[in-house]
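Hi U.,

Before I forget, here's the chain from the pilot set. I'm dumping it here mostly so it's searchable later in email.
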Amino acid sequence: MSMVQGPPGVDLRLRYFRYMPANVYPQVAAGVYFAIGVILIIQTIRSKAQAWLYVLAGTAIFEAVGYAFRAACVYETTLALFLLQLLIILLPINAIALFNYKVTGKIISDSLTAKPKYLWLRPKFVYWFYFASDVFSVLMQGAGGAMMGKVTTRAKAKTVALIGLCVQLLFLGCYMTTTVYVWRKPEYIVHAGPRDKSPQAAKRKVMINIISTTTLLYVRSIYRIAEFADNTIYSTEWAFYVFDTLVIFFAFVIYIVLFIGPNFPRKSAGLEKQLSYISVEEANAQSLSTRLTDKDY
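Structure:
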């Protein structure tokens, strides 16, 4: 396959990427992310989880498609291929943040005894406020990515993308604060799956999952900000594979190992029984404590 050239003597790979993209790595990444997507689909089906959990599998498959386009760029780089690989790799990751927002919102809304006193703890606010911030971030990053193809607009493109990434970083930090608060409050409980020893253990697993993956998203966002702000980092391919490809890969590994599908089943009536069970256990513990105190006297 012949290499498409721009001006005489200018390789379009250098023009768009600022380096000669390495072979093999994008093919491996595409295969790995596709396998991750398949595994997540199987896990979601087997756990009879709610439909929104398929977002994870869809994100992994989109990543695989993005790296497939990047692999094509190794052999024939065009503006269309460059923009496709850039946008498909850059934007779907925002769906992971959206997924985590949904998890926290579901925990709040499913907890029957919890009555949020603050606006920032209301389920609809948690989901839609962070969803709106995510959409704004996606639009800004998408606009910046689309402008990267032209040398004349590249400086403006970086500024636009930086604004989107900084917004994402800000709201990820706010979301982490909300999630830690929900974790510490016992009134917010999680449906226990077949392998969870108790609702408390289920909640700990879910919280470790979303806090760990959100932290990795934070690392990735910091890298992306540094990449757009510093031409040296932008022109370094190994940093992209370490701080983007590997970081998101580890996030997906966490999602698979600590899979939360069983904690959000389609039929969640069992949550009321678990809540009653917790109340009985707490009442028994309080009664035992009272009897022991009376005995001392």
